[in-house]
Amino acid sequence: MSGPDERGGPRITQRGLWFEEFEVGAVYEHRPGRTITEADNVLFTTLTMNTQALHLDAAWSATQPGFDGERLVNSMLTLSTIVGLSVAQLTQGTLVANLGFSDIAFPAPMFAGDTLYAETECTGKRESKSRPGEGVVNLTHIGRNQHGEIVARAARSTLVRLNPEGPS
């Protein structure tokens, strides 16, 4: 919260969580979801130079078993989107760095027109020994489609600022 505005009311700036505000074991649900379009998939796939035919070639994809002739959404788009959906609620303005991702899995496919919903569990945290004023927060991001099926899961380690004003 900043000081009062010209009308005397409070001014509140949206931000993510300070290190102290993360609660181990809490699951943060990120809403709204994001419907992934064919244009999203083609743009992301071509921007990242991923020439995999399963993402770009509708005629070829139609000949492949198991996907009913549909092109798959690029799994890196799915991963990027579940992380992106978490930013406003968890890390906007409080994140110092991503330290790493691990245990990434895509147990079910995403197709154009599917809606992606994200949730994040805080799985651990500790103050940094080498960087005063910062702490390591471990997160598990989970993406689900509109049917509730898990389509992506990833563990993430982040470096987050401690509240500069101290505990609230």
UniProtKB/TrEMBL annotation:
Question: Which family does this protein fall into?
Answer: Belongs to the enoyl-CoA hydratase/isomerase family.
Domain of life, per lineage: Bacteria
The MaoC-like domain covers which part of the protein? Answer: 24-142
Note the SUPFAM superfamilies from the entry.
Thioesterase/thiol ester dehydrase-isomerase
Q: What is this protein called?
A: MaoC family dehydratase
Q: Which Pfam families match?
A: MaoC_dehydratas (PF01575)
